[in-house]
Amino acid sequence: MNRKILGKYLIAGPYIFWMAAFTIIPLCLIFYYGLTDKSGIFTLENILAIATQEHAKALWISLLLSFISTLICLVLAYPLAMILKGMSVSQHSFIVFIFILPMWMNFLLRTLAWQTILEKNGVLNSILTFFHLPKQNIINTPYAIIFGMVYNFLPFMVLPIYNVLVKIDDNVINAARDLGANSIQTFVRVIFPLSLPGVVSGITMVFIPALTTFVISNLLGGGKIYLIGNIIEQEFTTAYNWHLGSGLSLVLMAFILINMLFTFKYDGAKGAIL
Fold this sequence. Notes:
The chain is mostly helical. The chain folds into two domains: 34 residues, no CATH class; 217 residues, MetI-like (MetI-like fold), CATH 1.10.3720. α3 packs across α7 and α3 crosses α9. The model has no long low-confidence stretch (mean pLDDT 87).
């Protein structure tokens, strides 16, 4: 018995080391710096700094753009997941492969591609000029950041929803129709409630990285639109104020935890027919 327990610990050893070195220790450092000043004295000033006009504005813009991006991803992903569910195995496997293919490319390169497309003399405006249409000034605006967020995070919305939809028994849907439910009623009262765990997982997987990103806003926002991630990144890399950067990170972490608590409510749930 002792050998079995020892064997389990040995197998889990690399994972425990990884968690301690790259998750627990960095989190402890963030808490330490966020709750102390440069003299090492306990303070809440670093956390309360979120109430300043600059930081509060950056947080509000981050929440707004993250919400809009998540909503757009949901609107695009759900119909696509429904279409994939209705395809044959060979067809939807190919579509999923094509959909995931860009994720194999470096995140930075994918975002730089959108910079090339949306810039003043980029691909988009070249096409519009060819058709004698007015040019669009999208780069360095919130719209460009939303484009980048949706493009980079859309697969994280599609896949959880699709995985839940394919597990819904067709007999349940057929039973609803046999009982007189039309297509809209079947979707509202059967399909959507059963797919809700996938929807919630997708929302979490899109909202959290969108809220914390700073690369997309740096490249597509041109340094003109500051998200809370940009403020934190600058405090660590430019101002070298780890205490303030850590304090703002703790505030951001609170929003992430709220989102995760919302997700845990549906974790492991199979949904319920209304």
